[in-house]
Every structure is written in structure tokens, then in C-alpha cells.
Design a protein that fits this description.
It is built from no helices and 14 strands. It has about 220 residues and is mainly β. The protein has two domains: about 80 residues, Sandwich (Immunoglobulin-like), CATH 2.60.40; about 100 residues, Sandwich (Immunoglobulin-like), CATH 2.60.40.10. Strand 7 and strand 8 form a beta hairpin. GO terms for molecular function: carboxypeptidase activity. It comes from Clostridium amylolyticum. Keywords: Carboxypeptidase, Hydrolase, Protease. This is Carboxypeptidase regulatory-like domain-containing protein.
């Protein structure tokens, strides 16, 4: 009967790096009113504020949230003008309430892109502004299912000679109800290397057999 060498490892959630851009203030950024939105929608809001008609005075404002309605802080919101071949206009970060604001915009058609590490980037286009509008554009970001995935790689060698071992069967196991369950298996290449990819966080056990693939 073949023997197995066993290794236990734990894969934890990866740490996310915070963006370096300066965020908006933690207080509400609306010029004169608060708007609450927990789903993706477009809002048109009338506000009372002094307007200098000689200056651009359109606004785009909104909330960036998760699907459960939780505000997303420090999401990068980028604004582009579709009138000028997707010319970049400005960018900002959401505050603690998930709010963002672009002000003093010319009339025209714009697009917004929202991104943050750990989430799937969301885009919206054909945002039309004219005649001193204050337009709400709230977006919902979905968690990226790939963000916490990890990989395990290694090399199998002879413990006496140190020789790299090719075609050795390597199994990856998880424990379910105190029972070891084979999740994936592979064989080493000509350099003795093996790898398992796309692994969610958890505790795993690796077993390397003492016989080669052709002996199985």
C-alpha cells in the first residue's frame, strides 16, 4: 500500500489596500437636502441654492452601496464626458455614508465608473445634464467572488536525495463533518512542482503520495 505525507494549511482572507486619494468629508455632501437610496436608481431633485447663470451649475450626486444597502466608503468614482469621446473630467472618493458629489458641471452627457478593491466595477452612461440640474445617480456594487480566492503551490522532492519528483500524485483535502473530502488533485511536473488555484478561505490538508501517476 502507498504511504502519504500530510500537510495542514489555513488560507485566510486577503487584506485589501485602501485607496490613497483624499475622500469627501464624513458629513453629507448634498448642498441643501439629504437623499436616502438603498438600490440602484436615478433621482431628480429640486434644490434651492443661489445660481450664477454665467457659471456651470449642474451637479451629480449619489450613494454607493453594497447589495444589502451598506454604504461603501472610499469607492473611487470617475466622471467622463461622452460629448468629448469619453474625456476624463474628475474623480472623487465616497465618504463614510457612501456619498459622492460632482459640482459645477457643464450641460452635456456623462458617464460614471465606480470601483473599489474587492468589488466588481460598475459603469453607468448617458447621464444627461442641462439647465442647472441636480441629478442623483446611486449605484450598487457587487462583491467580487474572486477577491478572496487563494492558491497553494509547492515542490515535491525525495527526502533522502533531494531529487525533484515528477508525476507524483498530490491531493487537496477539506474537512466536512470530521470527514476528509478530496477537493482537487494534480500531479507534479518535471520540476516536482504542483499547484492548486481558486481556493476560498479555509483549512486544507495536502497529501503527497509515495508512488507516481503511472503506478496508480
Amino acid at each position: 500500500m502507498p504511504s502519504f505525507d500530510e500537510y495542514v494549511l489555513e488560507i485566510n482572507n486577503l487584506k485589501q489596500k485602501a485607496p490613497k486619494q483624499e475622500a469627501l468629508p464624513d458629513k453629507a455632501v448634498s448642498p441643501s437636502t439629504m437623499v436616502e437610496a438603498t438600490s440602484e436608481e436615478t433621482l431628480k431633485i429640486d434644490i434651492k441654492t443661489p445660481i450664477n447663470k454665467s457659471e456651470p451649475s449642474n451637479f451629480i450626486y449619489g450613494f454607493i452601496t453594497e447589495e444589502n444597502g451598506k454604504a461603501i466608503e472610499d469607492a473611487l468614482v470617475e466622471l467622463k464626458s461622452l460629448k468629448d469621446d469619453s474625456k476624463f473630467i474628475a474623480s472623487t472618493l465616497t465618504n463614510l455614508q457612501g456619498e459622492y458629489l460632482f459640482s459645477s458641471l457643464d450641460s452635456g452627457i456623462y458617464s460614471i465608473s465606480v470601483s473599489k478593491e474587492g468589488y466588481i466595477t460598475k459603469n453607468t452612461s448617458n447621464i444627461a445634464l442641462q439647465n442647472h440640474q441636480y441629478l442623483g445617480q446611486s449605484l450598487v456594487l457587487s462583491v467580487d467572488p474572486m477577491v478572496n480566492m487563494s492558491s497553494v503551490q509547492g515542490i515535491i522532492t525525495d527526502d533522502i536525495t533531494g531529487k525533484l519528483l515528477e508525476d507524483i500524485i498530490v491531493g487537496l483535502y477539506s474537512r466536512v463533518n470530521d470527514i476528509e473530502v478530496l477537493i482537487k488533485s494534480t500531479v507534479t511536473n518535471n520540476e516536482g512542482r504542483y499547484a492548486f488555484y481558486m481556493l476560498p478561505p479555509g483549512e486544507y490538508k495536502i497529501k503527497a503520495s509515495s508512488f507516481r501517476k503511472e503506478d496508480a
